[in-house]
Design brief:
Four copies of one chain form a homotetramer. Chain A is mostly helical. Chain A has 20 helices and six strands.
């Protein structure tokens, strides 16, 4: 039962029974309210592996430094192993009166091994403990996110390879601007994900300092070895200031900010999926797996998964914003307000991981409609800028004047209800006598696309190069 | 098991087993991802009472209009009653493949009563159904919130009565500004809650139009009576435009905005509680019920509950912001993105209800420290403005010049390390010869407070009047 | 020069000269920084009319209560009139060392009338003064917003009248769902704006209590008449608690929340405008006035204005969120943080007013493409639900079974590449023998639309009724 | 005149004259509204240096590649130099009909050099141009921010050196927890700023790819050399995908997220400043430079600057949130919505730079009150955990049992109204007989602080080491 439910049920009961909560013996009610607002176990039990792992590292160090005896230490270690097994197997009983995961583990340890359990908390406090656990949890999820983003990039590369030279309209203002290739379009998302992974990687590096041993806020007088615990838990080093170590939630904020930007990218792609699968665009057909049908209109595929991915940015970005608001103006060091941090991060990670997996699946399984894409590219005189550029490049006409000539050609084609490439040379020369046969080399969308060979351009040859480079980058990781 | 957990577990498993989700038969994995992102049952099952109540009103109307036969209709009604009992008792089995609460109820109805179940969905769709259920749920919680806010106001009045003439410093910039009474301070929060309740009441009025019968988006050709269902469900009237009815989430947004402002008020009060219970202020002593102790420092009372109330505004305001972001730029009518709406509202309501109950408990059980409050009020020459006002009022000295004289008196008192009221008349006359004995009528904090009898002022006599008026207001509700 | 500029310039200079700001005599630099962060005159000078009006009401009351002499009072009144003229005409010189609008007015008054100026600030402080001015400013802009929203509603009604029976597709998930009328679609926005105006009106009522006379925070000992000033400034009554009066910014928050929802509505309409003017949709042609062209593609109309309206919700909603964050956890009464309130509100009002005027202009001047709308409505078997409903209503087939039959008919039409209405009776009867000639009464989009006569439905007859009701509502305002 | 003003004035006029804007010739009004919403010159003129610098690099490359003749190119270069001088000197006339900075420069160039001006826009578009300019502007401000943050760190180090062993209470929940040193406290902020600078540095690296040459969205057919322009403008390399290059605003978002976290840190420090300068805390005395006084209470120092720094996080974080909302769900490539990006970034940079400079000044000039800090540290039995740790460390009593003994000692001291260190050995032994003389080595706050020598701990010896390390880090930059 999660905290949400827990609160929810209190609320629901109140709604039914109204005075239930404030009736009865007053202090009982108070106890319930305090427990409901104070306990975090329904949220923070997700930290159990990290909490046990960190406790093991801590007690091993205490043994090494002779602060805890070998015998007590080994007893603690085996007790912790047993607790981890109990929680993983589902045998462990959670109890809201024990507030949080740290107290659950410690209380159960006392049950299992007795008195030596009391030595585990030497030279640490819940403040450094929770910061350590939480950093480890985020670090682990950064690694998982990095992997599923990499998987998604691979699928983008595969699809970009398949559609290297499939022509489609490039839009500005959702108006047809210039023809591009679908491969090029997909590679734009490859680049975004690359930056997303870079941000996660930077966040991981920056958070990778171990708070353990900062104790409540001031450090400790016990002769501990913080380098040893930091190393055991795969941190680069211990944090440099004990007060900062227990007050800091930068790592959660930076992580949420990075996820916000990643989810923004997915929301943009999701919006394109929704647009492209509308009957008006008809650029793609979604697979049954990532759309929902209608019993009444069997041909219909509602892009539900894409719509939900588009929506998730709301909650993920909301998490960053909420945690900032919670932390705003808090004096050092630890305040209870900070307990709210985990709910935001867990929710954002759940939303993010699901969004990435869903979008990966959508892209993997959709079918582009080659003809519809091509027809749309031909629409709207999308090669007009090619004509203007040709006038500049080949006939050496100044740019702004070339625009004027092109405008006249477009008007003519519109009047003739034909494409630019279907205007006769006579017609074109009636606008600008210097135009010659070579102009037809660039007037079709195919030729337009092929000509865009500047670095990063949409020409299939350049898209191939970009894919090649991307593959090499990924091999070198 | 809530959605959070459900997603959470997928995520955790992935983290452990990494390729688990994308391994195995591909389409199985896809099905799981789609289900995980698409299903809302873990969230929207909280709507079950409303869903069943609305279905009953709908089928009763269909019977009345002879769209559904009496026999079928009665069969549906009794089936729905049975389902409600099953869910309330916990006997009902939820199944994530059935997506949402509407499908759960309908599927179970078919199991119980067979073919007639298929007639329930006549002349409605999930789009108008969910809008109706959700409005009813919010309406019910507005009523509950209104009641617990009223309860809180009553406690504020009781406490304001107890502390009508307890003198404390009024702060600006967290600097002592003028003496006020604790009763007056508490009455400021009474006013805030009054506006909060007004906003909720306005929100309730505005949302109280029934979407049922708007069907998918266009209305229906069945001869339904929307006034009848609206009335049966206690709505003021049916919504006026079917497209708007299924696209609109204003009611959720306005509700979340109102809660954001309420939670802001509680965050301000909570911050005061934290400040006031610090050893530096020592204005109040928290009860054991709403603080947490320290095994090591038995006298210590950490204001955990207040800190958590202060934090909750982060998530509640985040909910408004997130839902706005989700809805931003969505074309009409229904898009799946809108399914996210309920998670924000349920979470905000849980946080809000708990915050109000906790803050009510904190205020109810705290003990103000009369002497500490009075000492602090005497501190900082808090009656300096009284002196300046007296110079203006009694000696007819212009305001800005009165300021100058007062500044000199304060400097003198500072040098003498005494309060303003302890300066001798000789001393005061050395600054301004016109000052006479009467000045001592206003120099003590007690006299200062007593003198502030402008409407809404802090004088105990005015606070009593304000309490009297407030009580009458509440009686007239 | 606005504050933005002012800060901006400091920043730019620093960037150029790097150490400029921290070089030189240290205390000079400090003075500049303090001034730059502290002064609000560049923002709050927009309150000048309100500030002068409130000062006039205040001094008139002071005269009436004999707290200020008739002679001094009249001198102050004429001085204030002169200052208002100076500011309105542009002759007034603003000076950043005078911090805010209140000090500007007071300093100038002293220049003009000498000593009596010093009596104006009797029995008030900047805290109640700014709250009063700001409420008056918002109130005035609510009235203006209400008017331009009403103007926009009128245009929506005119357009809905013009297009009462123009058929277009109604979308869910951006998939064609059911045919609707353009008139009905526009009336959905009429309803949204109606709620928007309701929220503004409620906000106006709630804020309409006058803080003036609350003084710094505690009220005053001067025998003032707060009812008199409240009445003179068109407030319903004075605020009931002096501490609340100077601490409260609910009115700004509630106003920003209301604007956020209004701007959300405009963002949804704007997104539809962008979609509808894409070549793929081609539902509308924008006027030159609210689009931007391309010298190279003269036929092109970029929906710039709509895109910008769509974007504005970002900053308006951001304003609400920012002000909440600023106010979060602030102890009573006034803190300097609250000075930031005006920048958010002024920006939001500017964005909002411009968005409404622009969207009004867009709607007023666009041309719907009747044939494109109709073709799109015919697309996608949009009358499938009509067929299913007909099977239920006329043949008494249960709803879910009717869905099955309809699915078969849609598949057949898809195979035949025809519309549902073009299937022969034989074909339809091969699926369900009970189907008869009457079915053709509902299979065309025209007949579908005409049939939706439930209250709030899309039938032209119902849209006409809705327009009629709306006009009556507006007449009664 | 900035955009704010411009809009503001329209709005104000409307409010006065009501129908002014919609009166008159309709198309005139429309033109004004469109211009007001569409023009960005009041905002983006701050990009003028970057725009001209990028144009120069572009035309130099065009000359090098023989796309533009040497003669024309040099004419363009000298024209651009002249324009920069005009703008810098203030001689340049801005005109709202020319929309944005790019058009202003180009139009002026045509005036100055005539026809060759038309060749400047070859092989680029406004889309890649604005992305390039904006990245350069942000990069420059990152460098400036890095410098003023470094300056601030230096001051923190100086102050931490001054106050290495000044004892003060360390708080959790704003309750006295353990004694720490003021030097240690200040070093916590040093660490935060260090991470802040790290985030800015990572952001700078990631954004440092040059969009120029991506043209409208598809790249270009001109034989341009993007490496050459990238190098000339100090970018690491050209962007890899032309579509991404013009659609991407990650750099602005990541920058705003980094600033949000920095401003959060300053808000926490600012809140401490406000608290510490309250009469209740009295930990510090602010300098006149960064506080505001009261004519009436000359001793008073309102911490206005700190309050404003605390507030700024609202707008800075709001900027991130707003831009995310603007970008949410935007299909590729460029949409006009994105024009709003600069307003958020410019505002955030202005707020951020000012906040850093103000906070630097506050810290530089404040005076801590040594005795008040020490007294507060002695308050609240802050060495209770030292006693518990001593019982564990020296007497080998289990941790939880040591807590129990300590609790008894604290109760005894409370009863005796003395500090822990003032309890006699007899008294202590009455609680736990094994306690001996050595206990007094840790019971005073001085000894407590001195004992915290774990890495990162608060002992003056450790703070000195931390300062030494920090200085070395900064030397190596």
């Amino acid at each position: 039962m999660t905290k949400n439910n827990s609160n929810g049920e209190i609320a629901e009961n109140n709604t039914q029974g109204r005075t239930a909560l404030w009736g009865g013996r007053f202090s009982d009610t108070q106890a319930k309210i305090m427990q409901a607002i104070n306990a975090s176990i329904d949220v923070d039990k997700r930290l159990y592996k990290q909490d046990i792992q960190a406790s093991k590292a801590h007690v091993s160090m205490l043994m090494h430094m002779a602060i805890v005896s070998k015998k007590d230490g080994e007893s603690i270690l085996s007790g912790l192993t047993k607790i981890e097994e109990e929680i993983t197997s589902g045998a462990f009983v959670f109890d809201v009166t024990l507030e949080d995961i740290h107290m659950h583990v410690e209380a159960r340890l006392a049950e299992i091994i007795g008195d030596p359990a009391k030595r585990l908390h030497t030279a640490r406090s819940r403040n450094d403990q929770v910061a350590t656990d939480f950093k480890m949890w985020i670090r682990e999820h950064i690694d998982y996110l990095d992997q599923i983003l990499l998987d998604f990039q691979k699928t983008l590369l595969t699809k970009a390879t398949d559609f290297t030279d499939w022509i489609m309209p490039g839009f500005t203002h959702l108006q047809t601007a210039q023809p591009i290739t679908l491969g090029h379009h997909l590679m734009a998302y490859y680049e975004m994900i690359k930056r997303d992974r870079g941000r996660l990687s930077d966040c991981r590096k920056r958070l990778n300092e171990c708070p353990l041993g900062s104790a409540a806020l001031a450090g400790t007088g016990f002769p501990i070895d913080r380098d040893m615990t930091a190393k055991a838990l795969d941190f680069e080093k211990p944090t440099a200031n004990s007060l900062d170590a227990v007050s800091d939630r930068d790592f959660a904020l930076e992580f949420l900010a990075a996820l916000s930007i990643t989810s923004l990218h997915l929301s943009r792609l999701a919006d394109e999926i929704v647009l492209w699968s509308s009957p008006q665009f008809n650029f793609i057909t979604l697979s049954d797996h990532f759309s929902s049908g209608s019993s009444i209109m069997p041909q219909k595929r509602n892009p539900d998964a894409a719509e939900l991915v588009r929506a998730k940015v709301g909650r993920i970005a909301g998490g960053f914003n909420s945690l900032l608001m919670v932390m705003k103006g808090l004096p050092l060091a630890y305040s209870k307000d900070m307990q709210e941090d985990k709910a935001y991060v867990f929710q954002a990670v759940d939303d993010m991981e699901l969004s990435i997996l869903a979008m990966h699946g959508i892209i993997e399984t959709l079918s582009p409609n080659k003809n519809a894409l091509l027809d749309a590219a031909n629409n709207g005189f999308s090669t007009a800028t090619d004509l203007a550029d040709w006038l500049v490049r080949v006939l050496n006409i100044p740019f702004r004047q070339a625009h004027h000539i092109t405008g006249a050609a477009v008007k003519m084609a519109e009047k003739q209800k034909c494409l630019l490439k279907d205007l006769s040379l006579d017609m074109l020369q009636s606008i600008e006598p210097k135009i010659d046969e070579r102009v037809y080399d660039i007037l079709s969308v195919e030729k337009s696309v092929t000509s865009r060979i500047s670095y990063g351009g949409t020409a299939p040859s350049m898209v191939k190069k970009a894919i090649f480079t991307a593959k090499k980058e990924m091999e070198n990781e």
